[in-house]
Write a structure and sequence with these properties.
Radius of gyration: 13 Å
Strand content: over 45%
Shape: globular
Number of strands: 11
Largest sheet: 7 strands, mixed
Distance between the termini: 37 Å
Number of helices: 0
Order of helices and strands: EEEEEEEEEEE
Helix content: under 10%
Structural class: mainly beta
């Protein structure tokens, strides 16, 4: 299983970005997937998850601003991030759980300027 994340960048506060996570070696709708983030000097934290059945859950800090989704035809997971805040600045990692094992993408940097 390989996960390739992309879409990060520099954006002003209030702006939007869409992260992508292309999966190979597995099928996105057959696994629980999610996004984590890690800010400088902080521990990695959960941002959002999507279950095999399509149920979603979000950290309180991003509720109402971020949306997780997947495109089965493209075998890709997405994270739409709106109304970005400086505190959203972090490296964002996509993750997948398959057969009891967790896989990570390489991370993509998101920087939100004030």
């Amino acid at each position: 299983v390989q996960l390739q994340a992309s879409g990060g960048g520099l954006v002003q506060a209030g702006g939007s970005l869409r992260l992508s996570c292309a999966a190979s070696g597995t099928i996105v709708n057959s696994n629980a997937m999610g996004w984590y983030r890690q800010a400088p000097g902080k521990e990695r934290e959960l941002v959002t998850v999507i279950t095999i059945g399509g149920a979603t859950n979000y950290a309180d800090a991003v509720k109402g601003r971020f949306t997780i989704s997947r495109d089965n035809a493209k075998n890709t997971l997405y994270l739409q991030m709106n109304s970005l805040k400086p505190e959203d600045t972090a490296v964002y990692y996509c993750t997948l759980v398959a057969a009891g094992r967790r896989y990570w993408g390489q991370g993509t940097q998101v920087t939100v300027s004030s």
